[in-house]
Amino acid sequence: MVSPAPARVKSVVRAASLPLRGDWRTRRMPKTQINIVLQRLITALALAIGTGLLVIFTNFQNNATLAENSVLTQRPKDVSEFIKIPSLSLTSPKPHPLPPTLVQWKDSTNRGDYFSQVKLTEVGYLLWSQFPIRVYVETPKEISGEQAQTWVNTVLQAVQEWNVYLPLEVVKQPEVANITIVRKAPPLQKSPNSNIPRARSAQTTYELYTNNKVLSHRFSILLSPTQTGNYLTAAARHEFGHALGIWGHSPLESDALYFSQVRNPPPISARDVNTLKRVYEQPTSLGWSLGEKYQN
Ligand SMILES: [Zn+2]
Asked: How far apart are CA 289 and CA 286, in angstroms?
């Protein structure tokens, strides 16, 4: 991959942290990725200072998410740059119009939601404002063509379940995707009280960048090759829910965004959609132009 010109590099905000990892079975901090902690501290400090700079060292991103490299190399390389975004240049978060598909959604059963579990990030809620949301599913190369096609179809089927609530488009080019899904084992995770690394079934991460000064985000989803059949469907459905903006977990087993895998994975629940709708009613800096002070 050819490195872009410096001007291009500067125009890209490579971002911030993984304030919540969409991984199942555990939510412990991965000890193997201390850089994440550093990154969070830096971000937190910058935010705490308020008038300070939100400093993002893009190398941290790559170091912190090694498993994403296969995805990142297909995108413009703007790494190894110290990029400073004046935090004041982030426009104050504003809501976008609610997508018609969510306007139409009415839960006659009044099941409630778990919006209180959705994390607020440094740029507000992680919602999309341009539709359709473009999705790329990478065809696995390490298995037979037939198996690869089955895998892609299974994932796409789970992804399409969300299409009822937000317009999605499956794209063939990873470069234009908003959300990329790859069959790859997430990095091993060490638990705080043990040196034995734990395997994870899936991981979802996001990064921020600017596009014509509009603050934008993109998501990468890793689905472990150990996931097959119903579990693969459930993992894809669950992680995709994170990528659509449900950046948190449900405490109820009957929701697709329940924090742990279950034997009989549920479909997308009314509570999942109620939560999604509430997210899309929230303010965000995403999808809005950066302020005048961001000149580069
Ligand atoms: Zn999750």
From this structure: 8
